[in-house]
Amino acid sequence: GEDVEQSLFLSVREGDSSVINCTYTDSSSTYLYWYKQEPGAGLQLLTYIFSNMDMKQDQRLTVLLNKKDKHLSLRIADTQTGDSAIYFCAESGYGTASKLTFGTGTRLQVTL
Amino acid sequence: DARVTQTPRHKVTEMGQEVTMRCQPILGHNTVFWYRQTMMQGLELLAYFRNRAPLDDSGMPKDRFSAEMPDATLATLKIQPSEPRDSAVYFCASGLMTGNSNQPQHFGDGTRLSIL
Fold it and tell me: pLDDT (tens digit, 9 = 90+) per residue, B2-15?
């Protein structure tokens, strides 16, 4: 079955860039996503990328996709304390409204 | 902003009781998902519907869980009888998939369920 892997924890200083990495196994994945979850809250869709793209930028967020290595990364520029949360990588096939397989989540801690 | 609405936000009940969780998907979305989040298993898909028809419920324990969509504006997830191991956060998400349009899933705030 599909498998999505992430490192569990990342700590960065305020103002630095954060890079959160994800690897996946399903070569038929068509869309890859990043969701953010703050304590006690639901999952907020940050951005997503179609598998035929290499990069997508949206304000402070940059997504890089290496389809050959099945590696996805999320870069947050100028990280702020409000970025502290758990970030989930997810993949789906057959369109953006098909079922998601999630990674374990990476807890981002932003220090002053 | 359009949102997925889940009720109740919190539920505490004793084992053996019936639990019903409700979800109102974003208006116009035709695909509804139920996920469960636990510390041990992370986020896992329980079931999902498209155009109110169940597409996949293989992640759901069949003996005690049931999911339905009585109409396009309401999805329900029931547990009967509930057990302590059902304690988790249950998320509903909705999205749109048609021949010409795809919209990614947006999540509700979840129902935090505790079974004593």
Answer: 899 999 999 999 99
